[in-house]
Design goal:
Belongs to the glycosyl hydrolase 26 family. This protein is α/β, with parallel strands linked by helices and about 325 residues long. The protein has 9 helices and 8 strands.
Length: about 325
């Protein structure tokens, strides 16, 4: 753990216990949080999904490196459910954690065994990369916009849980021990009804290494509003990754204050171990600009945030 011995880590955790509600006996177990991508108390990894208009991925990485004076610790890539199972990701720096956001399919195709070969292929390919990988399969399952959400699967979240557990077993059988499993609901449920609460989709502690959450300030929500429900529900048991987040503009100089609030929120929430910015002005079907450098004030706030010790994971 970057030069910290076990006693030092436990000491740091003991300081965090009051803030995140960890019982003393849980502090030692928390040292192992994160599975193949370890959680480091007091240090959040900072990364992004990076797709900038008019620039290649490599050029985009270079721009952010120049602007921020640091590297990305996590690179988020989106993989389709089938037809693309790479053997490597040469554009992703070797010292960065690859986060694979893997699309899903209907629960029946997984639980019936029809997708076993596809799952096994992805497991084998990711295992072969021999690098730490965060696998975020079937994210935002409590929404109503993906094939793998409850709304499109008979309003039966139990099917998602069964699918997840089957995939987890297949990955284990195919030696994908370098894969940390990231369960990532949306910050709010759509529709917001009892059967669709995010808790109903949770696969169980034995099947999850990190709990993720997607949340943006589309309606001027604060970071506290977006992330506290997930942190409160799981932060005592699992490390939290803000797996998709960013600010859009709500008028002149509106991004910078939100970024400052995000920085303060993460600083005050010890269970958050990673933040992944949705860094793009190139999202298909929308003109929204999520880039943190869309104006000088926003870039200054973002630069200040990512250079803080809290974001040095």
């Amino acid at each position: 753990m970057s030069g910290l011995d076990r006693r030092q880590v436990l000491g740091m955790l003991s300081l965090a216990v009051p803030a995140i509600g960890l019982a003393p006996e849980a502090a030692q177990a928390a040292v192992k949080w994160g599975g193949p991508v370890p959680f480091r108390p007091g240090k959040a990894m900072l990364g992004s999904y990076l797709s900038l208009r008019g620039r290649t991925f490599t050029e985009s990485l270079a721009l952010r490196r120049k602007q921020l004076g640091r590297e990305q610790r996590i690179i988020n890539r989106y993989y389709p459910w089938s037809g693309y199972a790479p053997v490597s990701e040469p554009e992703v720096p070797s010292d960065a954690v690859l986060m694979v956001s893997w699309h899903g399919t209907t629960y029946q195709r997984i639980t019936s065994g029809k997708s076993d070969k596809n799952i096994a292929l992805m497991a084998t390919r990711l295992a072969g990369m021999k690098r730490p990988i965060m696998l975020r399969w079937g994210w935002e399952m409590n929404g109503n916009w993906f094939d793998w959400d409850g709304t499109h699967n008979g309003k039966k979240p139990a099917g998602y849980v069964k699918s997840w557990r089957r995939m987890h077993r297949i990955f284990r059988e195919n030696g994908a021990t370098n894969v940390a499993w990231v369960w990532g609901p949306n910050w709010n449920s759509g529709p917001d009804v009892a059967w669709n609460k995010f808790q109903r989709y949770y696969p169980g502690d034995s099947y999850v290494d990190w709990v993720g959450v997607s949340g943006y300030n589309f309606s001027k929500e604060s970071p506290k509003t977006l992330f506290t429900p997930i942190v409160s529900a799981y932060g005592k048991r699992k490390p939290i990754v803000l797996a998709e987040t960013a600010a859009i503009s709500h008028g002149r100089n509106s991004k910078a204050p939100w970024i400052k609030k995000l920085s303060a929120y993460v600083a005050a929430t010890p269970s958050i171990g990673a933040v992944v910015w949705f860094d793009t002005d190139n999202q298909k079907g929308t003109s929204r600009d999520f880039r943190p450098d869309s104006d000088a004030e926003a870039l200054a706030a973002y630069r200040s945030m990512v250079r803080r010790t809290r974001f040095s994971g």
